[in-house]
Amino acid sequence: MGSEGLADGPPAWPGERGEESLKPMQPVNFEEALELILAKEARYGREAYLFLREALDYTQKGLVKANKGKVRHVSGQELLAGIRAYALSQYGPMTLTLLHEWGVKQCSDFGEIVFTLVEHGVLSKTETDSRADFQSGYDFEDAFRKPFIPSNRSAPAPTAG
User: What CA–CA distance (Å, rounded) separates 139 from 136?
Assistant: First the structure.
């Protein structure tokens, strides 16, 4: 899943992105595609799709930096790690509340959003990408709430005996 899959530029031939289709992809406007998705799909709020797009950009920028300027495909597990880091940096302790408000309750929900965007031509995928890539992600409580729970620094209170 890559931002090269965000069709804001000229049309790309699917083979250039590792897709199997022989037809050229037409540029897809994110906002137009999102309107079509939201008209048919009510599981996730608009903000969930916008957040995923921002988190993908954040993840890709980190990978490009780590790969000395080389752009490459983002795997599902890499995207999940980027989503976590981006969400915590942007929303802090409100992350879990916001994700739930947007209808996102577990990592597989991000996979559903990604593949809905793929199906609408907004993102690209490789032949090895699947929804299953998002099944073995992290627990939302551990990822988004625990970092903000203060550790117990004092000794336990004595019990009456």
Answer: 9
